[in-house]
Amino acid sequence: MKFKANLAWVNGTWTPNVLLESDEHGLWSRIKLDATDIESEGALKLGCVLPGLVNAHSHAFQRAIAGLTEYSEQSGDDFWSWRDRMYRVALTIGPDHLESIATWLYSEMLKSGYTHVCEFHYLHRNPDGVEYADPSEMTWALVRAADKTGIGLTMLPTLYMNQGLGQSGLNSMQRRFASTPESILNLQQAVVRQAKSRSTQFSLNAGVAIHSLRAVAPTEIQSLTSHSGAAPVHIHIAEQSKEVADCIAHTGLRPVEWLLANANLDKRWNLVHATHTSVSEIQGIQAQQASVVICPTTEANLGDGFFDLPEALRQSLSWSIGTDSHVNRNWTEELRLLEYGARLSLRKRNVALLHKNGHGSTGQVLFEHALQGGTQAAGLPLAGISLGQRADLLEIDLESDSLLGVPSARLMDALIFSTPSNNFKSVFVAGQKIDRNSVQWKADFVKTMTEL
Ligand SMILES: [Zn+2]
After folding, report:
1. Rounded to the nearest whole angstrom, what is the distance from the C-alpha of residue 303 to the centroid of ligand 1?
2. What residues are annotated to the active site?
C-alpha cells in the first residue's frame, strides 16, 4: 500500500508531506519526507496521521462488567469485593460469549486508536473447572474476535495456580483459571503455530503471563519463563497496598524487590501496574531492561493508587499503557489521567516535563513513551512510522470538536488534554484499512449481556 499524508507523526514530531509505503508483510518499507506530487502519484491521500498505539493489558471478558460495579449494597467496597463480583461473571462466560464481548471491545479499541492488544488471558477451563476438549477453546475465541475486527493480538496465556501467598491451590471461584507451566506453554505454542501459518505474521503473537506473585510459586515462575523463548512475559505486580504488605509478610521483600532478586528479569518482562514501586525499585526495573504497563483508569476505578510517573520519566523507564478492566477504551483518556494523577498529587502542572526542566510538549512525552513501551509489551515491531515497523495508522479528524482551530504543533496536546474526543476518521493495521463498525457485532454483544 502507498499513502501520502499531509502531516505525519514521525520520530516524535509532526512532519509535512510524508510518503509511506508498506510491503507484503504489512511493514513500512519506504518513508519519504517532503515528498513531491510526482512521487506521491497513485498514493491514498490522507490528512493528518499518527501511528496506532498498543493496548498492553486487557482482560476482554471484564468489558461485560464495565459500569456495573459502581453500585454497592455493602460498606467498604474495595479491590477485593470488586474481584468477587468479577469472579461471579467469569464463571458464566462461554466461548461464544467471550467472542462476542471481545469482538465488540476490540472494535471499540480500533475506533479510539488502539491497533494492537495484549490479552492477559486466564479463563482457560469450562465453568465447571474441567478442561475443554480443545484446551485452547477460550483462546481461539479471542483470536477469532481479533481476526474479525482486524486488531493485532498478542496472546498471553496466564499461569494461575494458588489462591494467595502461602495458600496453595485455587478456591472454587477460581476453578476456571487452573493451569500449569506445561499447559500454559502448550497454549502459547498453539497460537505460535497459528501465527506461523499466516501470510502476515506480524498481527498475531504469543507470550506468557504469570497472574501475580500471590497466584504462582517461585519455582513455577522459573519453569514457565525458562521455556517460553524470547516472547513477552507479563505479570501483575504491586497493584494494591495489601498485596505489598502480604508479600513483605511472606518473603521479607516488597513485590518488585522480590522479582528483581529472584526472577531474572530481562527485556521480555512487562510489570503490569507497578503502582506501589519505590525509587530504587524503578532503578532496578530499568537496570534489568524490563518495562512497566500502567492502566490509569482501572487503577483509579479500583482505588489502587498513583504510579510514580515523574520518577519513571526521570529514570528513562520503559512503559506502556493498558485498559485492563475496560472501564475506558480510549488511550487519550489513559494518558490524560496518568498526567492528572501526578498533577493532583504534586500540585504542579505538566509533570511529564519535570525531567526536562519543564520544557516541551507534555502530550509528546506521554505518547512517545506509550508508543515505544508498547513494542516491548507486544513483542512485535510496533514502534511507529519507521522502516520495518508495522504499518499501523490513525487518520485524525481535524474537524472534531477538540481539535477545531488548534495549530498543528499543538495537535498531540489537544488530542490528549482537550475533550470530548472522537478524533479518528480512519484506522489502518498492517497497511490495510479497518472497517470498525458492524451492526452484527453490536447485536451479539447486547445479546451476550442479557445472557450473563
Ligand atoms: Zn489485569
Report:
1. 14
2. 273, 324
Nearest to 115 by CA among 51, 159, 43, 58: 51
Per-residue pLDDT reduced to its tens digit, 71-127: 887 777 888 887 888 888 889 999 999 999 999 999 999 999 999 999 999 999 999
Q: Quick one: cell of 155?
A: 496472546
Instruction: Give the cell for residue 400.
Output: 472534531
Q: Which long-range contacts (CB under 8 A, 24 or more apart) does 283-288 make?
A: 283/315, 284/256, 284/257, 284/260, 285/256, 285/260, 285/317, 286/315, 286/316, 286/317, 286/318, 288/260
Distance CA 128, CA 108 (A): 31
Cβ-based neighbours of 310, under 8 Å, separated by 6 or more: 342, 346, 351, 352, 354, 355
How much distance in Å is there from the Cα of 57 to the middle of ligand 1?
A: 6
Report d(CA 369, CA 334) in Å as an integer.
Answer: 13
Neighbouring-strand partners of residue 235 = 210, 271
The shares of helix, strand and coil residues in the chain, as percent rounded to the nearest 5, are: 40, 20, 40
C-alpha cell of residue 302? 479500583
What average pLDDT does this structure show over 157-183?
A: 95
Mean pLDDT of the residues in the chain: 95
Q: Please report where in the chains the cell 484506522 appears, as a residue.
A: 427
Sign of CA dihedral 361, 367, 368, 370: positive
Provide the pLDDT for residue 76: 79
d(CA 326, CA 342): 21
Is 421's pLDDT higher than 80? Answer: no
pLDDT interval class at 439 (50, 70, 90) = very high
**What mean pLDDT comes out for the span 54-78?**
89
Residue 379: partners with Cβ closer than 8 Å, 6 or more residues away? 154, 205, 207, 230, 231, 232, 268
Which strand (E) or helix (H) includes residue 17? strand 13-22
Edge-to-edge order in the sheet of strand 393-396:
28-32, 13-22, 2-10, 44-51, 393-396, 424-429, 432-433
User: What is the distance in A from the centroid of ligand 1 to the CA of 4?
Assistant: 38
Q: Which residues make Cβ contacts (< 8 Å) with residue 363, sequence separation at least 6?
A: 335, 412, 413, 414, 415, 416, 417
In the reported structure, the alpha carbon of residue 17 is separated from the centroid of ligand 1 by a whole-number distance in angstroms of: 40
Quick count: other Cβ atoms within 10 Å of Cβ 388? Answer: 11
